[in-house]
């Protein structure tokens, strides 16, 4: 069963922001981005959903960066969501 996230600041007339890094490259980067965007969204009263790909499969070169590993990246996404109390 999929849990539907509860968005904060839902009085923004249906506008919301989905934002984050193209790919999760590490915990510190994810927390830095989520923290800054979340602070702006709180100040502006805009609902915020943090996004970041845990695996990049659309690369044109075989040796291009595809991610830090599914489990590690998904755990970072979960931690960010829990820490800032935002959907991911």
How would you describe what is shown here?
With 88 residues, the chain is mainly α. 38% of the residues lie in helices and 7% in strands. The protein is built from 2 helices and 2 strands; from the N terminus they run E-H-E-H. The chain has a two-stranded parallel sheet with strand order 1-2. Helix 1 runs parallel beside helix 2. The longest helix has 18 residues. The chain is elongated, with a radius of gyration of 14 Å. It starts with 16 loop residues before the first strand and ends with a helix.
Task: Describe the SSE topology.
Blueprint: E1 17-19, H1 27-44, E2 48-50, H2 70-84
Parallel strand pairs: 1-2
Helix pairs in contact: 1-2
Give a quick precis of the structure.
With 88 residues, the protein is mainly alpha-helical. It is 38% helix and 7% strand.
Instruction: Report strand %.
Output: 5-15%
Count of individual helical segments = 2
Give the averaged pLDDT, no decimals: 84
Helix and strand sequence: EHEH
Strand order of the largest sheet: 1-2
Shape: elongated
Spans of at least 5 consecutive residues whose pLDDT stays below 50 are none
Please give the largest β-sheet. 2 strands, parallel
Distance between the termini: 16 Å
Q: Give the class from helix and strand content and strand pairing.
A: mainly alpha
Rg calculated over all Cα atoms: 14 Å
Helix content: 25-40%
Number of DSSP strand runs: 2
Short key terms for the protein model shown above:
single chain, mainly alpha, two-stranded parallel sheet, elongated
């Amino acid at each position: 069963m999929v849990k539907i996230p509860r968005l904060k600041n839902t009085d923004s007339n249906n506008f919301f922001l989905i934002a984050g890094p193209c790919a999760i490259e590490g915990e510190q980067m994810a927390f830095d981005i989520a923290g800054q965007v979340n602070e702006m969204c709180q100040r502006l009263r805009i609902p915020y959903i943090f996004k970041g790909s845990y695996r990049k499969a659309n690369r044109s070169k075989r040796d291009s960066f595809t991610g830090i590993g599914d489990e590690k990246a998904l755990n970072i996404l979960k931690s960010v969501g829990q820490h800032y109390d935002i959907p991911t």
